[in-house]
């Protein structure tokens, strides 16, 4: 009886992948859940585990081949079918069976650490950081590790107090929702010792970093791939993982010390050896990869155009200065500029609804509500939390929502639901000192307003030159839906509302 190995679900909107590396060859024995091969998509690298124990009968999709979701990759002859033949071909099998350690007395006290729910439409994450190592004591709810999805970071707390006895998913590994990350001995693990890898006894287990001939340790699949790509021998790498397991970062260290340096990729400009020694190569985070893809998709798919105007901020600044103390005392939140811009855009969107619409195939979907995206910078990249039904909110409600969403964004606590469903976006580059820029659309939205730095400039008012606090406004829009007249009208309405904030109170 054979078991098929098929391409797993690759993620939302991802339909195909390339077979990057096979870690096994036909005839090799495999254990259940042992990594067989690695697939690469345009977003992530996906490891494919063995569904059963047995022998790899054949490989249907070789390295370099493009495969679709659920395509057949290989077949495995199950261990039960191989019977004595499998054992005969692996003389160490009997030894492994005899040497297999007996279950620990406190095995029933072991608590699995699992990947938490990642959010709607998110099926996998990357283990970015472990805060604990095997053998460390942990408290209940203490942070064990951090996972990174293509949108948010997720912290994984300890489900119980005890000792971390096992780490299954190492830093850099890709894990699926509800996959096992590690295990905790809730009894305290007084006599804890990291178990030897299957096929080893405690007597022939090498010391960490030992790459001698007696080693029988399965290196991280990502490390194997990196060694193959860099042409680095396993003996040239010192493993820092458990029992000397080689991790991806170990290969990077060995590669930086090796000579000669590998040739630069053809796409890069030539660099001298001295310059290359001073470079640092860091893999893009999943969030940064997603940001890059979405921004490029927006440029490729939309007929994007930007129109500009400027606004005299004197009226808003005067009103804010007059009422900010009383406002904060009553509502418990500061009165900022964002609530004025949010209100002004909500009013303008009602007059020019095509800026609040989106294209769906050959249809235009008009939104009779405003879910405002407020772009926020975080240490890991730009995210856009959404404030729902902002057109029905008061100034105080808007300020509270912006403050709360901004804090959650900086702390990496935003859920997927909080960043979905926006109909229009405001981006404030002025907080970083930007004087003028052209914001990029946030698909499938058709409009985004760019705010900029408030700067005193000479302007002509009633025939006289005066100094006023001015801000440039930029509206980027999808010209497939929004005509130039509509875009200019929208920006003029925003300008009018901000220069005379009383219009907002009068709903004009």
TrEMBL record:
<dbReference type="GO" id="GO:0004149">
    <property type="term" value="F:dihydrolipoyllysine-residue succinyltransferase activity"/>
</dbReference>
<feature type="region of interest" description="Disordered">
    <location>
        <begin position="189"/>
        <end position="280"/>
    </location>
</feature>
<dbReference type="Pfam" id="PF00198">
    <property type="entry name" value="2-oxoacid_dh"/>
</dbReference>
<comment type="pathway">
    <text>Amino-acid degradation; L-lysine degradation via saccharopine pathway; glutaryl-CoA from L-lysine: step 6/6.</text>
</comment>
<feature type="compositionally biased region" description="Low complexity">
    <location>
        <begin position="253"/>
        <end position="272"/>
    </location>
</feature>
<dbReference type="Pfam" id="PF02817">
    <property type="entry name" value="E3_binding"/>
</dbReference>
<dbReference type="GO" id="GO:0045252">
    <property type="term" value="C:oxoglutarate dehydrogenase complex"/>
</dbReference>
<dbReference type="InterPro" id="IPR004167">
    <property type="entry name" value="PSBD"/>
</dbReference>
<feature type="compositionally biased region" description="Basic and acidic residues">
    <location>
        <begin position="87"/>
        <end position="98"/>
    </location>
</feature>
<keyword id="KW-0012">Acyltransferase</keyword>
<feature type="compositionally biased region" description="Basic and acidic residues">
    <location>
        <begin position="242"/>
        <end position="252"/>
    </location>
</feature>
<feature type="domain" description="Lipoyl-binding">
    <location>
        <begin position="110"/>
        <end position="185"/>
    </location>
</feature>
<comment type="subunit">
    <text>Forms a 24-polypeptide structural core with octahedral symmetry. Part of the 2-oxoglutarate dehydrogenase (OGDH) complex composed of E1 (2-oxoglutarate dehydrogenase), E2 (dihydrolipoamide succinyltransferase) and E3 (dihydrolipoamide dehydrogenase); the complex contains multiple copies of the three enzymatic components (E1, E2 and E3).</text>
</comment>
<feature type="domain" description="Peripheral subunit-binding (PSBD)">
    <location>
        <begin position="218"/>
        <end position="255"/>
    </location>
</feature>
<feature type="compositionally biased region" description="Low complexity">
    <location>
        <begin position="189"/>
        <end position="199"/>
    </location>
</feature>
<dbReference type="InterPro" id="IPR000089">
    <property type="entry name" value="Biotin_lipoyl"/>
</dbReference>
<comment type="similarity">
    <text>Belongs to the 2-oxoacid dehydrogenase family.</text>
</comment>
<protein>
    <recommendedName>
        <fullName>Dihydrolipoyllysine-residue succinyltransferase component of 2-oxoglutarate dehydrogenase complex</fullName>
        <ecNumber>2.3.1.61</ecNumber>
    </recommendedName>
</protein>
<dbReference type="InterPro" id="IPR011053">
    <property type="entry name" value="Single_hybrid_motif"/>
</dbReference>
<keyword id="KW-0450">Lipoyl</keyword>
<feature type="region of interest" description="Disordered">
    <location>
        <begin position="82"/>
        <end position="108"/>
    </location>
</feature>
<keyword id="KW-0816">Tricarboxylic acid cycle</keyword>
<dbReference type="InterPro" id="IPR023213">
    <property type="entry name" value="CAT-like_dom_sf"/>
</dbReference>
<dbReference type="Pfam" id="PF00364">
    <property type="entry name" value="Biotin_lipoyl"/>
</dbReference>
<dbReference type="InterPro" id="IPR001078">
    <property type="entry name" value="2-oxoacid_DH_actylTfrase"/>
</dbReference>
<dbReference type="GO" id="GO:0005829">
    <property type="term" value="C:cytosol"/>
</dbReference>
<feature type="compositionally biased region" description="Basic and acidic residues">
    <location>
        <begin position="215"/>
        <end position="233"/>
    </location>
</feature>
<dbReference type="GO" id="GO:0033512">
    <property type="term" value="P:L-lysine catabolic process to acetyl-CoA via saccharopine"/>
</dbReference>
<dbReference type="InterPro" id="IPR006255">
    <property type="entry name" value="SucB"/>
</dbReference>
<dbReference type="InterPro" id="IPR050537">
    <property type="entry name" value="2-oxoacid_dehydrogenase"/>
</dbReference>
<dbReference type="GO" id="GO:0006099">
    <property type="term" value="P:tricarboxylic acid cycle"/>
</dbReference>
<comment type="function">
    <text>E2 component of the 2-oxoglutarate dehydrogenase (OGDH) complex which catalyzes the second step in the conversion of 2-oxoglutarate to succinyl-CoA and CO(2).</text>
</comment>
<keyword id="KW-0808">Transferase</keyword>
<dbReference type="InterPro" id="IPR036625">
    <property type="entry name" value="E3-bd_dom_sf"/>
</dbReference>
<feature type="domain" description="Lipoyl-binding">
    <location>
        <begin position="2"/>
        <end position="77"/>
    </location>
</feature>
